[in-house]
Specification:
The chain has a four-stranded antiparallel β-sheet with strand order 1-4-3-2. Helix 1 packs antiparallel against helix 4 and helix 6 packs across helix 7. It folds into two domains: 144 residues, Beta-Lactamase; 107 residues, Arc Repressor Mutant, subunit A (Orthogonal Bundle). The longest helix is centred in the N-terminal third of the chain and has 28 residues. It has eleven helices and four strands; from the N terminus they run αβαβββααααααααα. It has 272 residues and is α+β, with helices and mostly antiparallel strands. The two termini are 28 Å apart.
Length: 272
């Protein structure tokens, strides 16, 4: 299956339905609620599968939304990028789940979450958090979740040359996110002429190279605004913007609101 990003950054409908069907069937077989966070370009995939919607998670996020977002969006994905092994992870609120990388070879992998259960010996700290059905329940499912994550990663982006180049370009931009890499640098990295490299970017992402650079940077900046307390200027500098006003103009043009307004909206009810 070929993955193509349309002009509105959505998956083709056939990909959407195949992934949704895979996840729904897998939930029934595994007895685990599934969701995934994919760090590639936004696709507008149904939020049913992109957020932690377990009743226990929702109960915690009503009061600790930003802390939960920081745990999943920064801590778990940072650790997974450094050590892409499938494992059982327990969040600060006692929710245990299986986490698995969608693409282990990618520098910033998407992550599949399967859970969540209470694995402690005492009673669960809140009624929404159910105890593990039996000791070893999550451990018994590690291999199946690992295989599912790999298959999901393949559906999101197969291993064809076009998709490898797509991920290679994103990986290059992530490595150089603290500055604005020139098209010639990417062209040299891909062993292409600058002209051909510009055409490849347009074909894969339906946008020019400068627009892609800002899209990737602003998407990651929006993530940091939502899950961290870093000052806006620090985030602007982190992603290669010379000053806060330049960053604010770019961000507002992309998201229709200022970085401060975005942060307040996410703190008021955005989902992880």
């Amino acid at each position: 299956m070929k993955r193509r990003i349309c002009s509105n950054n959505r998956l083709m409908p056939s990909d959407d339905s195949a992934i949704a069907e895979l996840l729904a069937r897998s939930e029934r077989v595994l007895g685990l609620r599934l969701c995934f966070h994919d760090r590639s370009l936004p696709r507008g995939f149904p939020m049913r599968w992109c957020e932690h919607a377990d009743p226990a998670c929702l109960a915690v996020k009503r009061h600790h939304q930003r802390h939960c977002a920081a745990w999943c969006g920064l801590r778990v994905e940072r650790d997974m990028a450094a050590d892409p092994r499938v494992r059982i992870s327990t969040c600060p609120y006692g929710h245990s789940e299986i986490i698995a990388p969608l693409r282990p070879q990618h520098p910033l992998p998407g992550v599949l979450y399967a859970g969540c259960w209470w694995t402690g010996s005492a009673d669960p700290p809140r009624p929404q958090l159910l105890p593990e059905p039996h000791p070893g329940f999550l451990h018994d499912r590690l291999g199946l979740v690992a295989a599912l994550a790999l298959h999901l990663g393949a559906l999101l982006g197969d291993t064809g040359g076009e998709d490898r180049r797509h991920d290679e370009i994103l990986a290059f931009l992530h490595r150089h996110r603290q500055r604005m890499p020139r098209l010639g640098e990417l062209a040299e990295h891909l062993d292409l002429s600058p002209s051909r490299c510009g055409h490849v970017v347009q074909e894969l992402f339906a946008m020019t190279y400068p627009d892609l650079v800002h899209t990737v940077k602003l998407r990651d900046a929006a993530h940091y605004l939502a899950v961290s307390h870093l000052p806006i200027l620090d985030i602007a500098l982190r992603f290669g913007y010379a000053d806060q006003s330049h960053f604010t103009r770019r961000f507002t043009a992309r998201y229709g609101c200022t970085p401060l307004t975005w942060r307040r909206r996410q703190a008021g009810g955005g989902m992880v």
